[in-house]
């Protein structure tokens, strides 16, 4: 196993264990199976284990296993504050203490503000006293490092990133999402600031493995590198010095062994131009079912009514390259939950965007189609309720 250092020089394994996808049986986590898998990863050198308050049973399972195997001082545990449930300073202690109890520990190595999508969510936490609270917990040693996990756009990521002296951040990032959410720009900016970057969804929830188009699978099989689809995705990330650790929700011994092997072999900067070009061809195959030929160049921006045209088209395309639910869920997280309304409903049809589009997309017409597809009535209601709840003043 290889390691890259955190902000304080402490080694973090290049591969981290995402504890959201433990195998369940009859509605409960199969603790014996989870124990075997965690110890397989631990013995292979994995030292970073990631969980969260809302991952049902995950914190308790991890805590039970770590205590039983007596490895607490040999690993790093990361968990997350359910910031969307916090409405006063007392709630900060309530949730944190409950997490410590579940984990059977008196400190957390990395504590993240969970699922920030908009700066206003972080602003609300500050209004509820989170800055003083963090200072108190860090002084006592109950929290060793503070960070945030993010689902939003690059602009919001940058704003949150620069607003506080973070110790770590966690973002969704893979070769298909290179310019989505925090994106490469966000990852590299965090690295420039000396903030370790952890990666979630390296395989897009398995979509870069099992759900690849048959043409892409065939291309990968015939490539002289001999790498599997998963290995291509992991190596693309490990190739970047800005990436500190890649989380994987591993739930089989075979998967753990394979991922640990790759994390032991891959080197930053090993990709050749041929490798880069090859993945671009794979992306082209994945995106062959796109509805709108948008390259996210952002020449169409800014929109005078703040419509996030590239983000909307990306989510619209995802409905057809992956699934309707996937595209709508991505839209809800990255566009729908912003404080400022940036949906296509704000478009006034001025046509300014179309004058600057290198792809000559009929943006106004395509926005209408995208909005109709992304926001059926049930999603409109759901987004409105979630927005009121998560971005409450």
Automatic annotation (TrEMBL):
GO molecular function, one term: metal ion binding
Superkingdom in the source lineage: Bacteria
Keyword terms, alphabetized: Iron, Iron-sulfur, Metal-binding
Alphabetical list of InterPro entries matching this protein: 4Fe4S_Fe-S-bd (IPR017896), 4Fe4S_Fe_S_CS (IPR017900), AKR (IPR020471), AKR2_Oxidoreductase (IPR053135), NAD(P)_OxRdtase_dom_sf (IPR036812), NADP_OxRdtase_dom (IPR023210)
PROSITE patterns: 4FE4S_FER_1, 4FE4S_FER_2, PROKAR_LIPOPROTEIN
Tagged with keyword Secreted: no
Domain 4Fe-4S ferredoxin-type residues, every copy: 338-366
Xref: PANTHER family: D-THREO-ALDOSE 1-DEHYDROGENASE, OXIDOREDUCTASE
Protein name: 4Fe-4S ferredoxin-type domain-containing protein
């Amino acid at each position: 196993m290889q390691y890259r250092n955190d902000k304080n020089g402490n080694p973090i394994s290049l591969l981290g264990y995402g504890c959201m996808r433990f195998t369940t049986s009859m509605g409960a986590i199969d603790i014996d199976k989870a124990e075997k898998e965690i110890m397989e990863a631990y013995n292979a050198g994995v030292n970073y284990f990631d969980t969260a308050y809302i991952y049902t049973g995950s914190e308790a399972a991890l805590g039970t296993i770590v205590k039983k195997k007596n490895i607490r001082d040999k690993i790093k545990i990361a968990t997350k504050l359910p910031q969307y449930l916090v409405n006063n300073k007392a709630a900060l202690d309530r949730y944190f203490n409950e997490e410590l109890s579940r984990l059977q520990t008196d400190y957390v190595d990395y504590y993240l503000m969970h699922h920030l999508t908009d700066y206003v969510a972080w602003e609300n936490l500050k209004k509820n006293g989170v800055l003083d609270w963090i200072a108190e917990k860090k002084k006592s040693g109950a929290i060793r490092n503070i960070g945030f996990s993010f689902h939003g756009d690059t602009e919001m990521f940058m704003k949150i990133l620069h607003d506080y002296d973070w110790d770590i951040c966690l973002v969704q990032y893979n070769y298909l999402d290179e310019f989505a959410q925090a994106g490469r720009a966000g990852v590299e900016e965090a690295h420039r600031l000396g903030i370790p970057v952890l990666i979630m969804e390296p395989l897009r929830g398995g979509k870069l493995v099992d759900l690849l188009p048959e043409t892409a699978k065939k291309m990968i099989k015939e490539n002289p590198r001999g790498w599997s689809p998963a290995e291509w995705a992991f190596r693309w990330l490990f190739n970047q010095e800005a990436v500190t650790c890649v989380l994987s929700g591993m739930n089989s011994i075979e998967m753990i062994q394979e991922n640990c092997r790759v994390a032991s072999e891959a080197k930053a900067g090993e990709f050749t131009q041929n490798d880069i070009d090859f993945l671009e061809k794979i992306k082209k195959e994945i995106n062959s079912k796109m509805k709108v030929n948008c390259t996210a160049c952002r020449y169409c921006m800014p929109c005078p009514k703040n419509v996030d045209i590239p983000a909307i088209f990306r989510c619209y395309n995802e409905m057809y390259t992956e699934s309707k639910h996937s595209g709508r869920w991505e839209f809800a997280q990255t566009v729908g939950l912003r404080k400022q309304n940036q949906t296509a409903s704000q478009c006034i049809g001025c046509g300014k965007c179309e004058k600057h589009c290198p792809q000559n997309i009929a943006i106004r017409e395509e926005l209408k189609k995208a909005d109709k597809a992304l926001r059926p009535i049930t999603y409109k209601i759901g987004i409105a309720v979630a927005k009121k709840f998560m971005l409450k003043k």
